[in-house]
Amino acid sequence: MIRVLLVDDQPLIRSGFRALLDLEDDIEVVAEAADGKEGLAQAREHLPDVALIDIQMPVIDGIETTRRIAADPTLARVHVVILTNYGLDEYVFNALRAGAAGFLVKDIVPEDFLHAVRVAARGDALLAPSITRKLINRYVTQPLNTGAETGLDELTNREREAVVLVAQGLSNDQIADRMVISPMTAKTHINRAMTKLHARDRAQLVVLAYESGLVTPRNSGHPGAQPAGRPVGQVRYR
Questions:
Q1: What is the helix (H) or strand (E) element at residue 62, kind and residue range?
Q2: Which end of the chain is more exposed for a tag (fewer CB within 10 A), N or C?
Q3: Per DSSP, what are the bridge partners of residue 3?
Q4: CA distances (Å), 164 to each of 16, 31, 191, 227, in order?
Protein backbone atom coordinates (compact mmCIF):
# COMPACT_ATOMS: atom_id res chain seq x y z
CA MET A 1 0.00 0.00 0.00
CA ILE A 2 1.09 3.55 -0.74
CA ARG A 3 0.61 5.57 2.44
CA VAL A 4 -0.37 9.20 1.82
CA LEU A 5 -0.47 12.29 4.04
CA LEU A 6 -2.67 15.24 2.92
CA VAL A 7 -1.60 18.70 4.07
CA ASP A 8 -3.86 21.56 2.93
CA ASP A 9 -5.62 24.33 4.85
CA GLN A 10 -8.83 23.96 2.81
CA PRO A 11 -11.05 21.12 4.14
CA LEU A 12 -12.93 20.85 0.85
CA ILE A 13 -9.71 20.32 -1.08
CA ARG A 14 -8.55 17.65 1.36
CA SER A 15 -11.92 15.91 1.18
CA GLY A 16 -11.80 15.85 -2.60
CA PHE A 17 -8.30 14.41 -2.73
CA ARG A 18 -9.15 11.86 -0.05
CA ALA A 19 -12.30 10.72 -1.84
CA LEU A 20 -10.27 10.19 -5.03
CA LEU A 21 -7.42 8.36 -3.29
CA ASP A 22 -9.73 6.15 -1.21
CA LEU A 23 -11.11 4.64 -4.41
CA GLU A 24 -7.72 3.11 -5.22
CA ASP A 25 -6.88 -0.36 -3.90
CA ASP A 26 -3.15 0.38 -3.60
CA ILE A 27 -3.37 3.80 -1.88
CA GLU A 28 -4.28 4.63 1.71
CA VAL A 29 -4.67 8.11 3.23
CA VAL A 30 -3.13 7.69 6.69
CA ALA A 31 -3.55 11.27 7.97
CA GLU A 32 -4.61 14.84 7.17
CA ALA A 33 -3.35 18.22 8.37
CA ALA A 34 -4.54 21.82 7.96
CA ASP A 35 -1.13 23.53 8.24
CA GLY A 36 2.57 22.80 7.99
CA LYS A 37 3.20 22.42 11.69
CA GLU A 38 0.47 19.81 12.02
CA GLY A 39 1.69 18.21 8.79
CA LEU A 40 5.19 17.74 10.23
CA ALA A 41 3.76 16.14 13.35
CA GLN A 42 1.60 13.78 11.27
CA ALA A 43 4.53 12.90 9.02
CA ARG A 44 6.66 11.94 12.02
CA GLU A 45 3.85 9.91 13.54
CA HIS A 46 2.68 8.04 10.43
CA LEU A 47 5.81 8.00 8.18
CA PRO A 48 3.86 8.18 4.90
CA ASP A 49 5.36 7.24 1.54
CA VAL A 50 3.99 10.42 -0.05
CA ALA A 51 3.10 13.78 1.50
CA LEU A 52 0.83 15.95 -0.67
CA ILE A 53 1.47 19.48 0.57
CA ASP A 54 -0.11 22.80 -0.39
CA ILE A 55 2.27 25.75 -0.72
CA GLN A 56 0.26 28.56 0.87
CA MET A 57 -0.81 27.56 4.39
CA PRO A 58 -0.95 29.23 7.82
CA VAL A 59 1.61 28.68 10.63
CA ILE A 60 4.22 27.02 8.38
CA ASP A 61 3.94 27.22 4.59
CA GLY A 62 4.44 24.31 2.22
CA ILE A 63 7.99 25.16 1.18
CA GLU A 64 9.26 25.39 4.77
CA THR A 65 7.35 22.22 5.64
CA THR A 66 9.06 20.48 2.74
CA ARG A 67 12.45 21.80 3.82
CA ARG A 68 11.98 20.46 7.35
CA ILE A 69 10.87 17.07 6.09
CA ALA A 70 13.91 16.85 3.81
CA ALA A 71 16.23 17.83 6.67
CA ASP A 72 14.86 15.20 9.07
CA PRO A 73 16.74 11.87 8.73
CA THR A 74 13.77 9.99 10.20
CA LEU A 75 11.63 11.21 7.27
CA ALA A 76 14.12 10.29 4.53
CA ARG A 77 11.61 7.94 2.87
CA VAL A 78 8.83 10.56 2.73
CA HIS A 79 8.43 11.92 -0.80
CA VAL A 80 6.84 15.37 -0.98
CA VAL A 81 4.61 16.40 -3.86
CA ILE A 82 3.68 20.09 -3.83
CA LEU A 83 0.10 20.89 -4.84
CA THR A 84 -0.87 24.46 -5.60
CA ASN A 85 -3.13 26.71 -7.65
CA TYR A 86 -0.06 28.56 -8.86
CA GLY A 87 2.52 27.70 -11.49
CA LEU A 88 4.79 30.62 -10.70
CA ASP A 89 8.53 30.26 -11.20
CA GLU A 90 9.77 31.01 -7.70
CA TYR A 91 7.36 28.51 -6.17
CA VAL A 92 8.74 25.84 -8.48
CA PHE A 93 12.40 26.50 -7.80
CA ASN A 94 12.02 27.05 -4.08
CA ALA A 95 9.96 23.88 -3.68
CA LEU A 96 12.43 21.76 -5.62
CA ARG A 97 15.41 23.19 -3.78
CA ALA A 98 13.62 22.55 -0.51
CA GLY A 99 13.44 18.86 -1.39
CA ALA A 100 10.12 18.32 -3.16
CA ALA A 101 9.93 15.25 -5.39
CA GLY A 102 7.22 16.77 -7.55
CA PHE A 103 5.19 19.90 -8.22
CA LEU A 104 1.65 19.76 -9.58
CA VAL A 105 -1.02 22.39 -10.17
CA LYS A 106 -4.45 21.63 -8.70
CA ASP A 107 -6.26 21.66 -12.03
CA ILE A 108 -4.60 18.35 -12.88
CA VAL A 109 -6.97 15.64 -14.11
CA PRO A 110 -7.68 12.77 -11.66
CA GLU A 111 -5.81 10.16 -13.71
CA ASP A 112 -2.65 12.27 -13.77
CA PHE A 113 -3.01 13.04 -10.08
CA LEU A 114 -3.14 9.34 -9.17
CA HIS A 115 -0.22 8.65 -11.50
CA ALA A 116 1.77 11.38 -9.72
CA VAL A 117 1.20 9.76 -6.34
CA ARG A 118 2.43 6.41 -7.62
CA VAL A 119 5.44 7.95 -9.37
CA ALA A 120 6.43 9.87 -6.24
CA ALA A 121 6.05 6.75 -4.10
CA ARG A 122 8.61 5.02 -6.33
CA GLY A 123 11.05 7.83 -5.65
CA ASP A 124 10.87 9.32 -9.15
CA ALA A 125 10.61 13.02 -9.91
CA LEU A 126 7.23 14.26 -11.13
CA LEU A 127 6.71 17.66 -12.73
CA ALA A 128 3.75 18.91 -14.74
CA PRO A 129 4.76 19.68 -18.37
CA SER A 130 4.10 23.39 -17.86
CA ILE A 131 6.39 23.36 -14.83
CA THR A 132 9.12 21.52 -16.73
CA ARG A 133 9.03 24.21 -19.43
CA LYS A 134 9.35 26.94 -16.80
CA LEU A 135 12.29 25.13 -15.23
CA ILE A 136 14.09 24.81 -18.56
CA ASN A 137 13.33 28.39 -19.61
CA ARG A 138 14.76 29.62 -16.31
CA TYR A 139 18.13 28.06 -17.11
CA VAL A 140 18.28 29.41 -20.67
CA THR A 141 18.95 32.90 -19.31
CA GLN A 142 20.22 32.23 -15.79
CA PRO A 143 24.02 32.28 -15.27
CA LEU A 144 25.49 29.00 -14.10
CA ASN A 145 25.84 28.39 -10.40
CA THR A 146 29.47 27.32 -10.25
CA GLY A 147 29.05 26.30 -6.63
CA ALA A 148 26.72 23.54 -7.78
CA GLU A 149 29.52 21.78 -9.67
CA THR A 150 30.75 20.00 -6.54
CA GLY A 151 30.85 16.28 -7.26
CA LEU A 152 30.53 16.45 -11.07
CA ASP A 153 34.13 15.33 -11.55
CA GLU A 154 33.28 12.13 -9.71
CA LEU A 155 30.61 11.12 -12.24
CA THR A 156 31.45 8.61 -14.94
CA ASN A 157 30.39 9.40 -18.49
CA ARG A 158 27.57 6.87 -18.21
CA GLU A 159 26.37 8.44 -14.98
CA ARG A 160 26.44 11.86 -16.66
CA GLU A 161 24.40 10.53 -19.55
CA ALA A 162 21.85 9.04 -17.15
CA VAL A 163 21.55 12.35 -15.26
CA VAL A 164 20.91 14.23 -18.50
CA LEU A 165 18.13 11.82 -19.42
CA VAL A 166 16.62 12.21 -15.95
CA ALA A 167 16.68 15.98 -16.50
CA GLN A 168 14.77 15.44 -19.74
CA GLY A 169 12.00 13.74 -17.77
CA LEU A 170 12.61 10.16 -18.90
CA SER A 171 11.69 7.16 -16.75
CA ASN A 172 14.16 4.40 -15.86
CA ASP A 173 12.79 2.20 -18.64
CA GLN A 174 13.13 4.99 -21.20
CA ILE A 175 16.64 5.78 -19.98
CA ALA A 176 17.54 2.10 -20.32
CA ASP A 177 16.28 2.10 -23.92
CA ARG A 178 18.27 5.22 -24.80
CA MET A 179 21.47 3.92 -23.20
CA VAL A 180 20.92 0.33 -24.41
CA ILE A 181 21.21 -1.10 -20.90
CA SER A 182 18.86 -2.83 -18.46
CA PRO A 183 16.47 -0.77 -16.32
CA MET A 184 18.31 -2.02 -13.23
CA THR A 185 21.64 -0.75 -14.58
CA ALA A 186 20.01 2.59 -15.43
CA LYS A 187 18.69 2.83 -11.88
CA THR A 188 22.17 2.02 -10.54
CA HIS A 189 23.74 4.83 -12.60
CA ILE A 190 21.12 7.28 -11.33
CA ASN A 191 21.46 6.23 -7.69
CA ARG A 192 25.24 6.51 -7.82
CA ALA A 193 24.96 9.98 -9.37
CA MET A 194 22.53 11.04 -6.65
CA THR A 195 24.94 9.83 -3.99
CA LYS A 196 27.94 11.61 -5.53
CA LEU A 197 26.01 14.86 -6.00
CA HIS A 198 24.29 14.61 -2.59
CA ALA A 199 20.86 14.82 -4.23
CA ARG A 200 17.98 13.68 -2.01
CA ASP A 201 15.89 12.52 -4.96
CA ARG A 202 15.50 12.76 -8.72
CA ALA A 203 13.92 16.21 -8.60
CA GLN A 204 16.98 17.66 -6.87
CA LEU A 205 19.15 15.80 -9.38
CA VAL A 206 17.35 17.67 -12.18
CA VAL A 207 17.95 21.03 -10.50
CA LEU A 208 21.64 20.23 -9.97
CA ALA A 209 21.99 19.14 -13.59
CA TYR A 210 20.81 22.52 -14.85
CA GLU A 211 22.41 24.69 -12.18
CA SER A 212 25.83 23.13 -12.68
CA GLY A 213 25.67 23.33 -16.46
CA LEU A 214 25.89 19.56 -16.88
CA VAL A 215 22.71 20.00 -18.91
CA THR A 216 22.43 23.15 -21.03
CA PRO A 217 19.05 24.06 -22.59
CA ARG A 218 19.07 24.65 -26.34
CA ASN A 219 18.89 28.37 -27.02
CA SER A 220 17.27 28.06 -30.44
CA GLY A 221 13.51 28.23 -30.11
CA HIS A 222 11.19 27.69 -27.17
CA PRO A 223 12.05 24.45 -25.31
CA GLY A 224 8.43 23.72 -24.63
CA ALA A 225 7.60 23.92 -28.33
CA GLN A 226 9.95 21.16 -29.42
CA PRO A 227 8.40 18.05 -30.97
CA ALA A 228 7.56 15.18 -28.65
CA GLY A 229 10.48 12.89 -28.03
CA ARG A 230 13.13 15.52 -28.82
CA PRO A 231 15.67 16.12 -26.05
CA VAL A 232 15.47 19.45 -24.27
CA GLY A 233 19.06 19.56 -23.09
CA GLN A 234 22.57 18.60 -24.06
CA VAL A 235 25.17 16.83 -21.93
CA ARG A 236 28.46 18.49 -21.13
CA TYR A 237 31.22 15.91 -20.73
CA ARG A 238 34.52 16.52 -19.02
A1: helix 62-71
A2: C
A3: 28
A4: 36, 36, 13, 18
